[in-house]
Specification:
single chain; about 350 residues; alpha+beta; eight-stranded mixed β-sheet; five-stranded mixed β-sheet; 8 helices; 15 strands; about 20% strand; globular; binds 6-O-phosphono-alpha-D-fructofuranose
């Protein structure tokens, strides 16, 4: 096996693999952005690893824009990512799931960060893996002015970079700049992310579906038919798919990326537009999915083609192996949840 010094570090890899059509300057700025993300990820990782010990378990006693009980680590992670990014002169604005409005940062910068700083945080107290999801856009308004809401409301197809950090049995960072998908693993003894999963692609076969079947009654008819199809063995001609659902998007998505599978969050009676956020959950995962040879749709159309209308809008999300997303789309007739 190679010694760590021979395995590219994230920054070195990016410099060596300048995204198509990007100038070296862009690549350098992108690298500085990702350096901020890596730093914050290491700080969050350290706190998560001792969450059971510190008194930061449990709710912070305040609600976030989603009306969800904010876990103290949600607040901690949000603060650390904002600190690490706001100090980089390459960020002009930040949108976070934890904040009602976006934060203007530096009028002379070109890039926007949209993030869910700690997705799946309700799993923290039960020691289940959680993640950070991030998306990077280039601003549309002129440099030298503060960013406007229109800078953030760009279709996912415009993303310059998208990625996630998975705080699991190891801490991994999966990222794309539109030039394939690369996976890096943190060596905690050195504090460095090394290239561990080059050119990630969904396998050609897939045998897993990830979905909260507790919402079955409200699922649209086409989703119910697809899940019945997953359960079917076609008179013994094939094995039924396996249900694997961790309740943490980053964890479910990552397992499906490595082993083949589909993640479904359909509309439900409670969330009639689905639960997941378009700008900083569905869009970055969709860019990674497509770059890894998979798909991400709202049931009918690619997630990346949706024109956003507000910062925290929700969208139904079906993403993963092309063979399974294609099968679902064949069965979808309408998106409205069944009454
Ligand atoms: P449910 C976590 O809150 C999250 O946003 C995703 O990470 C996860 O896949 C989903 O919600 C779980 O939602 O309704 O099944 O508990």
């Amino acid at each position: 096996s190679k010694s760590p010094s021979l395995i590219p570090e994230l920054g070195e890899f990016l410099i060596a693999n300048t995204p198509h059509g990007s100038s070296v300057a862009t690549c350098d700025e992108l690298n500085r952005l990702l350096t901020g993300i890596k730093l914050a990820a290491k700080v969050v990782n350290r706190e998560l690893s001792k969450a059971g010990l510190a008194d930061i378990l449990g709710a912070a006693g305040i609600e976030n824009v989603q009306g969800e009980q904010q876990q103290k680590l949600d607040v901690f992670a949000n603060d650390k990512f904002i600190q690490a990014l706001a100090n980089r002169e390459v960020v002009c604005g930040i949108c976070s799931e934890e904040l009602d409005e976006f934060i203007p940062v530096n009028p002379n910068s070109k890039y926007l960060i949209l993030m869910d700083p700690l997705d799946g945080s309700s799993n923290i107290d039960v020691n289940v893996s959680v993640g950070t999801i991030f998306s990077i856009l280039r601003r549309k308004t002129p440099v030298g002015t503060m960013p406007e809401i229109s800078d953030f409301l760009q279709p996912g197809r415009s993303q310059l970079c998208a990625g996630y950090v998975l705080y699991g049995s190891s801490t991994q960072l999966v990222v794309t700049t539109g030039n394939g998908v690369q996976g890096f693993t943190l060596d905690p003894s050195l504090g460095t992310f090394y290239l561990s999963h080059p050119e990630l692609k969904f396998p050609s076969s897939a045998s897993v579906y990830s979905c909260n079947e507790g919402n079955w009654l409200a699922f649209p008819k086409g989703v119910k038919e697809f899940i019945d199809w997953c359960h079917d063995d076609e008179k013994g001609m094939r094995r039924p798919l396996s249900l694997r659902y961790i309740g943490s998007l980053v964890s479910d998505f990552h397992r499906n990326l490595l082993q083949g599978g589909i993640y479904l969050y359909p509309p439900t009676k409670k969330d009639r537009r689905g639960k997941l956020r378009l700008l900083y959950e569905a869009n970055p995962m969709a860019m990674i999915a497509e770059q890894a040879g998979g798909m991400a749709v709202d049931g009918f159309n690619p997630i990346l083609d949706i024109q956003p209308s507000s910062l925290h809008e929700r969208v139904p999300l079906f993403t993963g192996s092309k063979v399974l997303v294609g099968q679902l789309m064949k069965m979808m007739k309408e998106l409205s949840p069944e009454e």
